[in-house]
Design brief:
By secondary structure, the protein is mostly helical. Helix content is about 80%, strand content about 0%.
């Protein structure tokens, strides 16, 4: 019990003192995950819109696939990407394995189906008259699209927040394609796994606190966003 208490106190000291190694891991983790979300969001929103407002062949199949991919374990995505990027894989010449770029690609693949599925649900719930009225009044398609996005902004923001929460805490994919290399690809989840396995509980607890605070913040943000959406409905 005393060891755990000491480790907890040391964890807070590491965070509050601005320990360079701890904060470098935190910064890297946020940079990779934010990049994946920023890259994935625009394409996901466009695809979600088309799935919601247009009827075409295999539309329902695509919707089912995105809903299925949304629940694929991170380690499966990591294994697939590892096989593709390894030296003997078809994309081995790109030399992306064990780099931050590989981690971004992996997290992109993890958050993209979630973004599409949740954004599709938001667009489905939208009043189609907002789109039809904008087009009737002579608005260009892209302008009408942004008008519709504004109408369902609370649902779309919730999708983006949920997508970020999905990738910032995943470990399987980052471990497999990043390699958990210090100062290069070690992020919060992989560092927690490594430090606790070595018995360095203070570092693991410090990084765990960051994830707990982030999870709490994301859930509060989603609750506030959904509450505003209900008020405006």
């Amino acid at each position: 019990m005393n060891d755990l208490r000491q480790a907890s106190f040391h964890a807070f000291e590491l965070l509050l003192s601005g320990d360079g190694e701890i904060w470098q891991i935190i910064t890297l983790s946020f940079r990779v995950s934010l990049t994946a979300i920023i890259v994935a969001t625009p394409l996901a929103l466009v695809i979600a819109f088309f799935l919601a407002f247009y009827r075409f062949k295999f539309r329902r199949v695509l919707i089912a696939l995105f809903n299925t991919f949304m629940s694929i374990p991170a380690v499966i995505v990591g294994l697939t990407l590892y096989l593709l990027l390894s030296r003997s894989g078809p994309l081995g010449d790109l030399k992306l394995l064990f780099t931050q770029d590989a981690m971004i690609i992996g997290q992109f693949l993890l958050c993209f189906p979630l973004l599409v599925a949740m954004s599709h649900a938001a667009f489905q719930a939208a009043d189609r008259r907002a789109w039809e009225t904008a087009i009737t009044l002579g608005a260009r398609p892209w302008r009408a699209f942004f008008t519709l996005m504004y109408e369902v902004r609370f649902g779309l923001i919730s999708a983006i927040v949920a997508g970020f929460g999905r990738v910032i805490a995943e470990i399987g994919c980052s471990m497999m394609v990043g390699g958990n290399i210090l100062h290069l690809t070690r992020n919060i989840p992989t560092a927690i796994a490594l430090e606790t396995s070595k018995g360095e509980f203070a570092e693991g607890i410090a990084l765990g606190i960051v994830l707990l605070v982030l999870a709490l913040g994301l859930n509060i943000a989603i609750s506030i966003i959904q509450g505003k959406g209900e008020v405006h409905a």
